[in-house]
Amino acid sequence: MKLYTYFRSSAAYRVRIALHLKGLAFDAVPVHLLQGGGQQHAAAYAALNPNETVPTLDDDGLVLTQSLAIIEYLDETHPAPPLLPGSAADRARIRAIAQTIACDIHPINNLRVLQHLTQAFSLSEAQKNAWYCHWVERGLQTVEKMLARDPRTGRFCHGDAPTLADCCLVPQVFNARRFGCSVAGLSTVLRIGAECEKLDAFARAAPGNQPDAE
Amino acid sequence: MKLYTYFRSSAAYRVRIALHLKGLAFDAVPVHLLQGGGQQHAAAYAALNPNETVPTLDDDGLVLTQSLAIIEYLDETHPAPPLLPGSAADRARIRAIAQTIACDIHPINNLRVLQHLTQAFSLSEAQKNAWYCHWVERGLQTVEKMLARDPRTGRFCHGDAPTLADCCLVPQVFNARRFGCSVAGLSTVLRIGAECEKLDAFARAAPGNQPDAE
C-alpha cells in the first residue's frame, strides 16, 4: 500500500493511525502542501485525487480518497482489530463522534479555507488564528459533551479499545495545541488523547515521526 | 422514528431521502434554525444533540446525530434497498463522493459558519454569497471529475440505483441553485440530479414538500 501524505495533515494523520492500528505496512509518499504552490495541485496528483488534498491511498492500484472512507475500507478489508466494533448503534455513535470532528471542525479550518479566507478578506494572522480556534474550541466542547455524558465512553472514545473516533480525535487535539487554542473544560477529550498517545500506533503516526517532518 | 428536521437543512434533506428510499415512516419534528435565535440552541434540543444542529433521529429512544452516521445506521438496520451496495471498493467510492460533499463543501457554508463569518469580519451580503458559491462551485467541480471519468458511474452516482452519494448530491445541487451559484461544466452532476428528481423518494424529501416549508 502507498499512502500519499503530509506530516501535518490531520486527515492523513487519521489514516496513518488506522494503518498502524491494523499493523499494515505502507510506503509514505510525501506531498508537500505548501512547497511550489502546493504539490497536491500538480497534474499527476490531481489525476489521482481530483479534490487535490491528502490523503490518497493506493491499494495495489485501487485509488481511494477521503480519510473516513479510506478508514472504513481498511476496516472492511482488514477487520482485526475492528475500528467500528459492536452493534449498529455502537457504530452510529463512533461515526457521529468521528464526523463531528471530520465534518464540523476540520473542514472549516483546513489549509485551502484558511488561504481563501485570508486572501479574500485581507485578514491578519491574528484574525486567522482566532477563526481557527473558534471552531476548534466550539467543536471539541461538543465532542466533550458527547463523551463525558455517555456511559459507552471508556478508556477510549467508545469502550476500551481505539476506534475510528480516536483516529479523528488525536489529530484534532494535536492541532488545537499547535495553534494555541484553549483546551479548558476538555477533561475527557484530553484524558482519552493521553491514553491514545501511550499506544505505539498513535506514536508512529504522529507528525513529528514522519519521514517528511520538518 | 422521529426526525428532528428543518426543511432547508441539506443535512436533514439527505436523511429524509434515505428514509423515503428505505420506505420508512417517520414523524418530522421541525426545528426552526432561525426563529428565536435558533430552536436548535434550546436546552431541550441541545440535550439531545450537543452539536445543536439538525438532523437528529430518535429511533425508539436511541438518539442519533450526524447525517452520514444516521444513513449508515439506517442502511445497517434496514438493508433493503442498499445505499452502500457492492464490494468494499464500491463502498469506498460511494463514501468518498458523499464525503466530498458532506465534509468538503457543506460544512464551510452551513448556517453557523455564515453567521460567524459575516459577524466577525463585517461582510456584506454579496461577500457572503461569493464565499458560498466559491466552495459550492469548486466542490461540485471536484464531484463532477469523480463522476465523469469513472466507468462505475451509471444512471446514478454509483451504478443504476441511488446510493448514499446521491442522498448527498441532490441537496447540494438544490443549494447551488438556491444561492445562484454557477453550475457550468457540471453535466454529469446535473444529469444525475435530474434522474434522482424523477424518483418519488427524492421528491417527498425535497424542502418544498416538508410540513415546515415556508
UniProtKB/TrEMBL annotation, chains A, B:
Domain GST N-terminal: 1-82
A GO term, aspect molecular function: maleylacetoacetate isomerase activity
Keywords assigned: Isomerase
GO biological process, one term: glutathione metabolic process
Any one Gene Ontology cellular component term annotated for this protein: cytoplasm
Keyword Isomerase recorded: yes
InterPro entries: Glutathione-S-Trfase_C-like, Glutathione-S-Trfase_C_sf, Glutathione_S-Trfase, Glutathione_S-Trfase_N, GST_Zeta, GST_Zeta_C, GST_Zeta_N, Thioredoxin-like_sf
Gene3D superfamilies noted in UniProt: 1.20.1050.10, Glutaredoxin
Family of the protein in this entry: Belongs to the GST superfamily. Zeta family.
Name used for this protein in its record: Maleylacetoacetate isomerase
Organism listed in the record: Thiomonas bhubaneswarensis
